[in-house]
């Protein structure tokens, strides 16, 4: 029970990797403060979490991470509710539409960056202030293999995730002296609704065939599972990772190092 008497704040908790991580953290004793723009799916996450961890404390907040005031509010509400923020999973993000860069609309580029990059920055800005006063804390930002190498037809997504990597390294360097660690995870092809949607954009009715081709170049020849990312995030948030800071950890079956 690595998270007994600890509070973890998480964005993007209504589905996918956020939901899987919420379940894992609750099973390990964490008090959860969960944020998402989709209030109905967020409540569904709470119900699922309670099935796995009936005694878990789960506080829900509906917020758009692209709205700085909303981010400040979800941080303040968490502190008011629980008194501290021991861990922060800065997870919310979108893939965006797919098209070559010259055809990628400016509006879509700005939308993706406002959520994936601005939202991460706002979260860091307000949570770091809380953690500095506490004198401790661990933050995990959601990057991607798209923040390590290019991803064709996804200019906004790739640019935003490269930016997340930069923010992670910068913040870890700045705040390590205050007992705060800031790291990022870089998932590859993890089978979530977002990845399924991406495959459908690429392949339409043949998306499953496209998916098989996609993982055929992965050294492990399969999609990752959301719980596998959850295990990594939980480790990085825990005291067992207390000397890991300002780094990016891929979780992609080795694909990003094959090329």
Automatic annotation (TrEMBL):
Highest taxon, organism lineage: Bacteria
SUPFAM superfamilies: NAD(P)-binding Rossmann-fold domains (SSF51735)
InterPro entries (UniProt xref): NAD(P)-bd_dom_sf, SDR_fam
Species of origin: Zoogloea oleivorans
Matching PANTHER family: DEHYDROGENASES, SHORT CHAIN, ESTRADIOL 17-BETA-DEHYDROGENASE 8-RELATED
Protein name per its UniProtKB record: SDR family oxidoreductase
A Pfam family the protein falls into: adh_short_C2
Family stated for the protein in its record: Belongs to the short-chain dehydrogenases/reductases (SDR) family.
MF GO annotations: oxidoreductase activity
Keyword annotations from UniProtKB, A to Z: Oxidoreductase
């Amino acid at each position: 029970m690595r998270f007994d008497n600890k509070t973890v704040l998480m964005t993007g908790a209504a589905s996918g990797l956020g939901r899987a991580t919420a379940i894992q953290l609750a099973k390990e004793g964490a008090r959860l403060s969960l944020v998402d723009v989709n209030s109905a799916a967020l409540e569904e996450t709470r119900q699922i979490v309670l099935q796995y961890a009936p005694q878990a404390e789960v506080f829900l907040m509906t917020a758009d991470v692209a709205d700085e005031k909303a981010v400040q509010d979800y941080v303040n509400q968490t502190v008011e509710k629980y008194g501290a923020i021991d861990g922060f999973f800065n997870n919310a993000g979108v893939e965006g539409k797919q098209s070559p860069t010259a055809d990628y609309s400016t509006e879509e580029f700005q939308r993706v960056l406002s959520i994936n990059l601005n939202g991460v920055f706002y979260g860091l800005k307000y949570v770091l202030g809380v953690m500095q006063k506490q004198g401790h804390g661990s933050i995990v930002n959601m990057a991607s293999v798209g923040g390590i190498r290019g991803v064709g037809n996804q200019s906004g997504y790739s640019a935003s995730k490269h930016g997340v990597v930069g923010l992670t390294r910068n913040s870890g360097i700045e705040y390590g002296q205050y007992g705060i660690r800031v790291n990022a995870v870089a998932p590859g092809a993890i089978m979530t609704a977002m990845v399924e949607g991406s495959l459908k954009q690429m392949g339409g009715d043949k998306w499953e065939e496209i998916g098989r081709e996609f993982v055929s170049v992965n050294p492990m020849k399969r999609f990752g599972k959301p719980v596998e990312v959850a295990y990594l995030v939980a480790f990085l948030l825990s005291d067992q990772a207390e000397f890991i800071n300002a780094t990016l950890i891929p979780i992609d079956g080795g694909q990003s190092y094959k090329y």
